[in-house]
Amino acid sequence: MDPIITSTLCVGGIGLVSAAALAVAEKYLSIKEDPRIDSVTEMLPGANCGGCGYAGCADYARKIVEENIELTLCAPGGPDCANAIAEFLGRAAGAVEKRVALVLCCGDNTEAVRRSAYNGIADCAAAQATAGGDKACAYGCLGYGSCARACPANAIAMVNGIAKIDKSRCIACGKCVGVCPRNLIKLVPAAAETHVLCSSKDKGPAVKKVCGTGCIGCRICTKFADEGAIVMDGFLAVVDYTKRLTNDEVVAKCPGHCIRKDDAGNKETAAAS
Amino acid sequence: MTTIRSPHTFHGGIHPAYHKDLTAGATIRTLPIPARLVVPMSQHLGAPAKPVVKAGDTVKAGQLIGEPSGFIAAAVHAPAGGKVAAIEDTVSAAGRVCLAVVIETDDGAERQTMPALKEWRGVDRKELAARIGEAGVVGMGGAGFPTHVKLSPPSDKPIDTVILNGAECEPYLTSDHRMMVERAQEIRDGAEIIRHVLGAKCLRVAIEDNKPEAIETMEKAFDAMDGDVAVVVLKTSYPQGSEKQQIYSVTGREVPRGKLPMDVGCVVENVSTACAVWDAVVNGEPLTRRVVSVTGDAVTEPSNLLVPCGTLYADLVAACGGVKGKAAKVISGGPMMGFAVGSLEVPVSKTTSGLLLLSADKLTCFTSQACISCGRCVDACPMRLIPSALSQFIEADDIESAEGVALMDCIECGSCAFVCPARRPLVQHMRRGKAAVMAQRAAAKSV
């Protein structure tokens, strides 16, 4: 037989057999996937930040559809995203509170004392492991930018030796929270505007010795703030974000200049406001 | 007793300037008990001790103030009598926060010791090891591994050689050197106790050849000892005092990766540890004091001081005539493996062998550059690792790959950073990487 005919028959035959096998497999072996998973994945922002606690957007979408978990876990997507998915799935969205990361320290290079020179690797964990860090305050921001490097949204900038978070860019994924060796970063409601930007648990005189903008535990703020909105944790004032803090007077009254409104810059502007 | 010149030495290593002449001739001075002692509960490798006293209590010298929690742990005793002022956090020289018992000392001479076991030869080996544990004896060379653990190897790992580590390869430090010169008899007796507890055949005293005075006193002290005893003179090379390197130099045996010295039938103990073992067994004295070399060109009167653990570095410096000129860098330990400290409010622990104060003249600050792949670190690494690759993996946060090229085998001796022409802070990278691995392992365990 002509080799052309032989090869044509062979290849064609293999093709036909394979096609038949595939047709059978399609009918009997196929895995049914809920098409809604793909649609929900499309609706999520696709940042794959992991802030929801699942391995990326597709995984979260699968959990939403299959296990009916809350729709409110996606911080980057926010309420719009949750509502869209809720409408699509015919479920109630629930309230999403947009959160942002906040660095609870404002002792920059002008205000906070550095007790020693550090010329090692520019990494906060490495600096912390070298004699406990070069900052005299054992609680303050070391300023070597580990959080900024961990941020997938480019929302953290190092300004004068301290990490500043751009609220508008923060997607609240929580990556920075995990890398800070001093546990200074917390996720707080985006609506909150007034914060106590200090984490020092030391007594007043000890704080004053090492930082010009630290909480000295004087309790003045607890008197001026709305009922229970600022509470004392030992010698440190802490904002209770479950309450609403609307009274701006606390900012001016704080003798440590560490209670600040968002975007209020340094001591002077904070005092002026 | 014989003296052997070691025929081999370990792979790699470096030859830094030793600067030992500052204190090598300084006789050990006993520091008066300071008014305030901050005794850390973590002066050893393993779980920190649990304080068993509370603020306001009166303690006697030698009284147990921290009990070990777990097997790899060590007891902590009061170095002096007085009142417990507080139990609070302190920062160790390595930068770790741990609990410390603060004692306001009085001049009470009363000591609380354990019963002396003068006739230790007739005492059960297990009991001797337990006594050494009760006395809180830990490796005084630097790592602080609890000695009673080393002295209780499993029965399927027979120990045939005890090596007494008197290499003291770290530049500047002379505390072990002075111990060998001044406490030769006590070290000898301690070594005999260690050999007895382990049932070992051979005893080797390893000393680098740059300490002829110590070699001579050790030869004399061990001369009359029976059994297979020898002083081994090692080539002066850093890190000759590191356990695995020393075992090779002394016996020619290599400790396999991930194994311990006992897997090749060896136990290495520092000479000061041997002295502490003697004190614990023969006198019933817990380990509460040690010799610290306070040295460097920024110290007025460099000295070797016998100090109670818990003495603050500031007191040590004051006892040596204070700071000469201006100290630009303070290091707890030696310049190679020590820790830079940020303040002098750090307490001496059982593992503090030296305090080094350097002036700005002795310091050079380098700017780290990219690795030029010259391979000098590979030649220098006594563990045969590839520090260049390791550091680059860690810099890229690829801890898994770093672990794959034996990150955890790094002994942090600093030989790689010493030779690096690009001045890369290699040891800091290693320490950071190792800390990340340990954190990962701890997290995996807690899940």
Can you walk through the features of this model?
- In chain A, 36% of the residues lie in helices and 12% in strands.
- Chain A is of the alpha+beta class and 273 residues long.
- In chain A, the strands form 4 sheets. Chain A has a two-stranded antiparallel ribbon. Chain A has a two-stranded antiparallel sheet with strand order 2-3.
- In chain A, a hairpin with a 2-residue loop joins strand 2 and strand 3.
- In chain A, helix 2 crosses helix 3.
- The longest helix of chain A is centred in the first third of the chain and has 26 residues.
- The radius of gyration of chain A is 27 Å and the shape is elongated.
- Chain B has 447 residues and is an alpha/beta fold.
- Helices cover 27% and strands 20% of the residues of chain B.
- Chain B is built from 13 helices and 18 strands.
- The longest helix of chain B has 21 residues.
- Chain B is globular and about 60 Å long.
- The chains are: A alpha+beta (273), B alpha/beta (447).
- At the A-B interface, helix 5 of A face strand 17 and helix 13 of B.
Condensed summary:
The complex is a heterodimer of chains A (273) and B (447). Helices cover 36% and strands 12% of the residues of chain A.
Mean pLDDT score of chain B, rounded? 93
Task: Give the percentage of residues in beta strands of chain B.
Answer: 15-25%
N-to-C CA distance of chain A:
97 Å
Largest sheet of chain B: 6 strands, mixed
Instruction: Count the E strands of chain A.
Output: 8
Structural class of chain A: alpha+beta
Mean pLDDT of chain A: 87
Total helix count of chain A? Answer: 11
Order of helices and strands of chain A: HHHHEHHEEHEEHHEEHEH
Sequence of strands across the biggest β-sheet of chain A? 1-4
- Largest binding interface between chains: A-B, 16 and 20 residues
Spans of chain A of 5+ residues with little confidence (pLDDT < 50)?
A: 264-273
Helical fraction of chain A: 25-40%
Radius of gyration of chain A: 27 Å
- Measured as a percent range, the helix fraction of chain B is 25-40%
Quaternary state of this entry equals heterodimer
